[in-house]
Specification:
alpha/beta, Rossmann fold, GMP Synthetase, Chain A, domain 3, six-stranded mixed beta sheet, three-stranded mixed beta sheet, about 35% helix, binds guanosine-5'-triphosphate, binds magnesium ion
């Protein structure tokens, strides 16, 4: 370790929905674990990944993006994000190169201030704006809260990612590794597979349909020859949405299935036989029992 102090701890990745938190986390760890999309409210629950280097170990906590909650699911999502700031060592506040701080973002800023935790500001999507706009965004956020370090990044283009991991490591407490150095996440293959299917559904749907989609893995079984059989349900809120998800002659569902299977095969390094079913569960986003069933409830974390 070249005589350097080894540092370890938790970093919460927080910010408005769609600013690129999950894309950034995937680039920070060098692997696609979190799903991403150009729709708002893609991430729905807390997701942990691990980055280990010679200098230290960072446990990243990706969180749902702040938006104005309108139902029980989105209320849960905002709460996960707000709460995450209090049980980590460092906060990675991700923003876009803008100068407007919305109501939800302002509430997050208040939570961050109250936590007293050190904050690193990542101005993401730097590939989309001229330098003077990025400077203005830095000014805006620096006057709204105390920031230890600012890093201008592009998660999509991989700009300044190593610099960001260095800055974050410097702010962690001295300590030994919390996870085995080969660990990338504590998510199960089953849970990641469900998320991959949800991502493909999100990316192939428009308007209000994607926000009412959830995925539940019904069975996940290895065959002796190495093939893995996965049955999954795509849950939606209305009969009309079911028709849209299935598409003309089943074309959209087939596309979602093909894209999902490819990514799941890459993830689990095995051939997959994937069967998708679409099921309507009316207004499930308001139903506490269904939310619990789908894992959208508070869990205990170390
Ligand atoms: N141009 C550009 N687009 C980016 C960058 N980072 C992320 N994106 C895009 O921004 C969109 C949102 O990315 P996500 O990573 O899903 O955003 P998020 O903040 O996790 O969103 P929520 O989970 O809803 O909170 C996707 O279409 C990404 O491809 C970037 O650096 N540059
Ligand atoms: Mg996300």
């Amino acid at each position: 370790m070249n005589g350097q102090t080894f540092r370890s701890g938790f970093v919460a990745i927080v910010g408005r929905t769609n600013v690129g938190k999950s894309t950034l986390m995937n680039h920070l760890i060098g692997m696609k674990i979190a799903i991403t999309s150009n729709k708002t409210q893609t991430t729905r629950r807390r997701l942990q990944t691990v980055f280990t280097s010679e200098r230290g170990q960072i446990v990243f906590v990706d969180t749902p993006g702040i938006h104005l909650a309108r139902n029980a699911l989105s209320q849960y999502m905002d709460n996960v994000a707000y709460k995450s700031v209090s049980d980590v060592d460092v906060i990675l506040f991700v923003v876009e190169p803008v100068t407007y701080i919305g109501k939800g973002e302002q509430q997050m800023i208040e939570r961050i201030k109250a936590s007293g935790k050190p904050v690193v500001l990542a101005v993401n999507k730097c590939d989309t704006a001229p330098a003077q706009d990025i400077d203005k965004a830095v000014e805006t956020y620096s006057s709204a809260l105390k920031i230890e370090k600012t890093v201008r990044v592009s998660a999509l283009k991989g700009i300044n990612i190593d610099e960001l991991t260095d800055v974050l490591t410097d702010l962690l407490p001295e300590g030994c590794a919390l996870y085995d150095e080969d660990t990338v996440t504590d998510e199960t293959e089953r849970d990641i597979a469900a998320e991959i299917i949800r991502e493909k559904a999100l990316r192939n749907l428009r308007d209000e349909v994607p926000h009412g989609v959830a995925v539940s893995i019904v069975s996940f079984k290895d065959r002796p020859d190495g093939l893995v059989d996965i049955d999954a349900e795509i849950i939606c809120e209305k009969d009309s949405h079911k028709g849209i998800i299935i598409g003309k002659g089943g074309s959209r569902l087939k596309k979602i299935g093909t894209e999902s299977r490819k990514d799941i095969e890459e993830l689990i390094e095995a051939r997959v036989n994937l069967k998708l079913f679409v099921k309507v569960r009316r207004d499930w986003r308001q139903n506490p029992l269904i939310l619990k069933d789908l894992g959208y409830t508070e869990r205990e974390h170390p």
